[in-house]
Known about the structure:
By secondary structure, this protein is an alpha+beta fold. It contains two helices and seven strands; from the N terminus they run ααβββββββ. It has helices spanning 2-15, 22-30, and strands spanning 34-37, 52-57, 60-63, 67-72, 83-88, 91-94, 98-103. The chain has a four-stranded antiparallel beta sheet, covered by helices on one side. Strands 4-5-6 form a three-stranded antiparallel beta sheet, with no helix packed on it. A hairpin with a 2-residue loop joins strand 2 and strand 3 (60-63). The model is unreliable at 12-19 (pLDDT under 50).
Amino acid sequence: MKIFLIICLSFLFISNAFAIDQNSIDLLTKKGFQVRMGELTGAGSKMSITRLAGLIHSDGIIMKEEIHNLTLNQTNNPSISDIKEIIVGDSVISAHELEGFFTR
């Protein structure tokens, strides 16, 4: 019985892990966020970093509050496309690994 419970809980945890899918993107949209998929250099070049609410990675959604450190190209008015890398927890994520971003 314990083994069955452990297997069920493991499956539940794995299925709820940070897998990004269309449902996650739809949920962001329903919460009032504007989602932009694709490289950060496109639409991100037109938006100030102050508008950033979060980033989309293949492993999941990263809220701005979860980012410990943000490395940017040095400019007078940094935009989302100036992101070089972020640190979330113990992970360093390069900008080219990011699949999109969302703003309010």
